[in-house]
């Protein structure tokens, strides 16, 4: 019997090597297709994007084949009831294969590890491609990851043991429910990430008490009711991103940055951007500056009788806000007492994963289609952001909703994430070209906004810059570079986690940590090497910093607005409830 096995083993091994070579060829074919896809969008022909150098490629192929040989041998030598040898392991944080069914079955353990070996090989090919254009190489790496993630065995019924187990245990009910979930999502036009019926804006989201005290074509201005008897004399104006709805800042009372700030004794105003429709389809960058922060500052001054409010901008809201302050400075005004920027880019040299998707051809195409009028639909933008983290925000729900037939759990953050907003074409295309593509904002006098040449060095107020260490949308080192552009004294704080979880880190939960340091080094890595980690939320550190610019304590006003700018409707207002 052993002689027979010995004779069969070489043949099986040869078949395995041939299968591995076939897999490699499939991967190379996929890379070639990605190159071809780039030809139209970046102007770089596929033939100009060579594969790795021969020596490096040979070493990768040899290692690739050796790992498959080791995996095949480990499967053949695995004894019943014993765990299999781990030739390949998922990356830290990858939970796709955490269920015991993947490791208990020799077959599915092999499928899992073979996929991981193949995925590692393809990543190496993408990383080793001799491409000098950093953006082109980043795009290849991004597209490679999309290919890898899409072909994971978790995503298919025949290769997912969790699907099989669930179907057997439910006697097929999970399959029926999965089909119903799929039909429902097709009708919605998007994948369900949460229980949509569990939330309603104004009912259990965005419930901090207040009133809309001003509105124009692009925004409503909310003033929040005080929660303390005494407040800082200098109010705070918050400018959230216009590519999402503002209530990321005011989800529920326990994780609301708005409520926390009001509880700290601040008079808080907030811009609620309009979800653009046909009437706003021709609005541009200048419109957003004038009808957003600049208009809001005028109203805040009129209501509070304070000439220089404190201001905070989040993500693109921070870019808009800082641009508006530069315009006001160019006009000879001294508009604010302090500036806070949360996960904001001013220097777009490394604009993260979004930056690798923006090139001359794609921007030119957008300009031709909607640059003079039109809308980028919110769902299209939401899909882009979701695929930046496809395993977490796409494939996880494909598996859970459709293969397992589950209903997603109620989660306020994911409800907000699915509540997409439209953007006017002229605004979007100007932003993409001048920020992401040409990085003009960092050059003094290069850009003219509202008739003024802007220079960020003239924004010379004290500034607090917060970034998130694992942010893939606004890389923290790029956010740090804003310190080198602004003209005033800056404080930089680095939060743990990503773009949203790092920023919205409630002080009451005392989770995660943040890094602070007195260094003013121009290089972000040098700053980090001298920074100290502090446990808990950066909110507490920021609230203490803000007090220095709040002025004296005064009695809180019971009335919102004033005679000229009276309450129009209760917070959160109409604009935030408009659907795309």
Number of helices: 19
Please identify which CATH superfamily of the largest domain we are dealing with: Alpha/Beta hydrolase fold, catalytic domain
Main sheet attributes: strand count, strand direction, barrel closure = 11 strands, mixed
Helix content: 40-55%
Major sheet: arrangement of strands: 15-14-13-12-7-6-4-5-2-1-17
Domain count: the total is 2
Provide a concise account of the structure shown:
With 580 residues, the protein is α/β, with parallel strands linked by helices. 44% of the residues lie in helices and 12% in strands. It has helices at residues 2-42, 54-76, 101-104, 106-128, 134-150, 161-169, 173-188, 257-263, 285-304, 316-330, 352-355, 360-370, 378-388, 390-403, 412-418, 425-437, 476-480, 524-530, 538-547; strands at residues 210-215, 219-224, 230-232, 236-239, 268-273, 310-314, 338-342, 375-376, 423-424, 448-449, 452-453, 463-468, 490-495, 513-516, 532-535, 553-555, 569-570.
Notes on the structure:
By secondary structure, this protein is of the alpha/beta class. The protein has two domains: 163 residues, no CATH class; 326 residues, Rossmann fold (3-Layer(aba) Sandwich). The chain contains 19 helices and 17 strands. The strands form four sheets. The chain has an eleven-stranded mixed sheet, with helices on both faces. Helix 4 runs antiparallel to helix 5 and helix 7 crosses helix 14. It starts with a helix and ends in a 10-residue tail after the last strand. The N terminus is likely disordered.
């Amino acid at each position: 019997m052993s002689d027979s096995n010995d004779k069969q083993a070489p043949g099986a091994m040869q078949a395995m090597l041939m299968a591995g070579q076939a897999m490699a060829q499939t991967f190379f074919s996929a890379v070639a297709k990605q190159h071809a896809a780039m030809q139209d969008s970046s102007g770089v022909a596929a033939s100009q994007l060579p594969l790795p150098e021969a020596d490096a490629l040979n070493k990768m192929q040899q290692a690739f084949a050796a790992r498959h040989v080791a995996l095949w041998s480990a499967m053949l030598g695995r004894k019943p009831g014993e765990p299999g040898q781990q030739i390949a392991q998922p990356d830290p944080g990858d939970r796709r294969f955490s269920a015991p069914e993947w490791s208990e079955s020799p077959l599915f353990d092999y499928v899992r590890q073979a996929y991981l070996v193949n995925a590692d090989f393809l990543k190496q090919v993408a990383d080793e491609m001799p491409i000098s254009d950093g953006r082109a190489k980043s795009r290849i790496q991004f597209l490679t990851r999309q290919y890898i993630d899409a072909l994971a065995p978790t995503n298919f019924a025949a290769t997912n043991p969790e699907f099989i187990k669930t179907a057997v245990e439910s006697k097929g009910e999970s399959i029926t429910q999965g089909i119903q979930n799929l039909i429902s999502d097709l009708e919605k036009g998007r994948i369900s990430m949460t229980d949509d019926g569990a939330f309603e804006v104004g009912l259990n989201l965005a419930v901090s008490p207040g009133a809309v005290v001003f509105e124009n074509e692009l925004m409503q201005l909310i003033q929040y009711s005080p929660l303390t008897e005494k407040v800082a004399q200098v109010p705070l104006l918050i400018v959230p991103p216009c590519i999402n709805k503002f209530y990321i800042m005011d989800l529920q009372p326990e994780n609301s940055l708005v409520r926390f700030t009001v509880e700290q004794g601040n008079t808080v105003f907030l811009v609620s951007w309009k979800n653009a429709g046909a009437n706003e389809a021709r609005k541009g960058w200048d419109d957003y500056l004038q009808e957003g922060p600049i208009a809001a500052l005028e109203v805040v001054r009129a209501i509070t009788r304070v000439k220089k409010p404190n201001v905070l901008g989040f993500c693109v809201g921070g870019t808009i806000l800082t641009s508006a302050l530069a315009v006001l400075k160019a006009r000879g005004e001294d508009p604010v007492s302090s500036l806070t920027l949360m996960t904001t880019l001013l220097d777009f040299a490394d604009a993260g994963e979004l930056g690798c998707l923006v090139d001359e051809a794609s921007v030119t195409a957008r300009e031709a289609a909607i640059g003079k009028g039109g809308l980028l639909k919110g769902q299209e933008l939401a899909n882009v952001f979701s695929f930046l983290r496809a395993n977490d925000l796409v494939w996880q729900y494909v598996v859970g909703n459709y293969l397992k037939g589950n209903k997603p759990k109620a989660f306020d953050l994911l409800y907000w994430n699915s509540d997409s907003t439209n953007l006017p074409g002229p605004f979007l295309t100007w932003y993409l070209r001048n920020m992401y593509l040409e990085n003009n904002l960092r050059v003094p006098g290069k850009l003219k906004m509202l008739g003024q040449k802007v220079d960020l060095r003239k924004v010379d107020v004290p500034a607090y810059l917060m970034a998130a260490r694992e942010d893939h949308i606004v890389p923290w080192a790029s956010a740090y570079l804003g310190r080198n552009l602004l003209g005033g004294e800056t404080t930089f704080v680095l939060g743990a986690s990503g773009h949203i979880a790092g920023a919205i880190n409630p002080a009451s939960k005392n989770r995660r940590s943040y890094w602070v340091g007195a260094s003013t080094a121009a290089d972000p890595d040098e700053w980090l090497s001298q920074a100290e980690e502090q446990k808990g939320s950066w909110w507490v550190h920021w609230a203490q910093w803000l007090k220095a610019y709040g002025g004296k304590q005064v009695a809180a006003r019971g009335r919102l607005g004033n005679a000229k700018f009276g309450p129009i409707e209760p917070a959160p207002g109409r604009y935030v409830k408009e659907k795309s």
